[in-house]
UniProtKB/TrEMBL annotation:
Organism: Exidia glandulosa HHB12029
Classification via Pfam families: F-box-like
Name of the molecule in the record: F-box domain-containing protein
F-box domain sequence ranges: 1-45
TM spans (from-to): none
Listed SMART domains: FBOX
Amino acid sequence: MSFPIELLVDIFSRHKEPPALMSLALVCRQWKEIVYNDHSLWTTINVTPRTTLGQVRTQLARSGNRHLDVEVSFVPSMEYADFEDVLAAVFVETSRIETLEIGTLHTFGDDDDDELGDESCWPAAVERALCTGVAWPQLRVLDLEGEMVFGDTLEIDIFAPTLVRLRLDCVSVREWAQLLRGTQLRDLDLGKAISGDMFELMMVLPNLTNLRRLGLNDNTDGDETLVFSLPHGKPPVFLHLVAITVYWETADISSLLSFLGCCPSLEQLEVMVTSVVNQDPTASNPVFKLPRLESLRLVVSGGNDRTSSDFLNLLAPALCESKLRDVDLDNMSIRSLEVLLNPHLERLRLKSVVCDPRALTHGLVQCTNLRVLELREVEMPSLGDAWTSDVRLSRLRSATLVALEADSRLRAVAAPDRLAHNRRLPGYFIPLVDSPGVMAATVQGVPLTVEEMLRLMKDLGNGGMLFVESHNTFYNTPGLKIGAPLRSDEAQYREFEVSGLVDAWRSLHSAYNILWRIGSLGIDICHLTEFFKVVLSESLEGAQLPLLFRLTICAGYMEGLREDKLESTLDDVGVLCASPGAVDAPYLLQVVFDNSAYEEDPLQVSQAALTRFISLFKAPFGPEVIMKAVIRT
């Protein structure tokens, strides 16, 4: 049976690597003829230091006169046999190359810098092809990623009139006007731009009327302030620019606002800077609107609270007609939430911000489509002990609360009041997520009271089977993660910290029969004794875990934990149970002992101690014992 040639070519084109093609050619005569004679299968050329000249020449010959997609990977300043000849053979075909991606395989450390001296990091063939004014008539995508070594960088000088996507990292441009002349550039992404490039680029940028995406990134460790220096006179208009991403050490906010005023179609704005300059809230700034903006992320990681807040306040007038769907704010005080919270909002993430709880609650009422809510290290200085809220976010699916950490930089909450402030946060947060539609709810950094825990757990799983994890958290406090499987690809869970495990287990069982609903239990060995104390005391008819089918005991990493402590904990549970078969677990099939947290020197448990522990369960099927690390015989 033979397949249509068009179908086979379509299938083969998904595996254009020469070794894969040659394997396909061995199947039958028809496949061999297709592989050898269809030029389109040989148009993707990958060049590495291991590529031979013969391989490249064969592939170029079989590609006919088709356009080429070329990817080159090299190790800077290293010489390989034939590598320059291989690159030269490829770059002879500049008239056919449509996509060119060149990147390094190694990132230098300080020791490497000393060995390189003044040598160029780039292969000579690359420099000849990209730095001498060569014309690339078919080039549509150019992606160059270099290394910063002693200031040595590639300075490109080419003519590419069909260029639509340009990405440069640690690469400079000799003359932007020449490079972009006549192009229809749509995507421009500059990483680690060289000092002096930015001013000339800004002079040329107004000519890029088809630009859709602009990314500027100096890895937030550069020494050049980012200034959007547009030409004087009538400002340009970037009708097609829909996305701007800026990751920079220092940015001139006044010029950035002026530039945004030229982008009426902007849909996505992401600005992450360490500090901002040239901002004056009292000065007159361009009056403009961003009616199509849907995604906003603002991060000012350094500086003082006022500068980051003024940045948002200066931008706020432009957002009054925006239909924001995704808002992510980090490290600022929020004075007004009206322009940010609207019925279109689907995701709200606030981190290290100061805001008024009443204003936030009032704004959340408007967010009828909110699906994701994250409050991370948020300061609410006016939050009181008796806070109540009747806000119901009917479409909320995921919610996270992270309290202030010990080393958090405080703006509005005094350091001595940190614990009291954290203690009030769950009372504000839990009513917001009190809905059966919330699939995931997490509270970190503050233990919940029994009342808060029970409210958070209400309606979870509707009385069905639960998967439970009991582990020490990052803050070294007891934590529970309780989940309920809904469908094969979806689960609902609640994750939180508690002050005491015994009280938590008893309260959860009293309210929701949790012990009788556990199907899978993963538990730190340091929590094991408390768990079985509750199991043995909560039933007049004997200890029961009627749905338990898998028990995983984890030797989670703890300072000072020793092997004798592990075994004594297992034996302590045996003492509590008093006799074999004390815990009725009719469906228990697996007991897993996992000490993989100690990767370098895994703790061990003796077979005798494990056998004694298994005997405590009345399990008619005889559970399988699985060791995820080392067992000592």
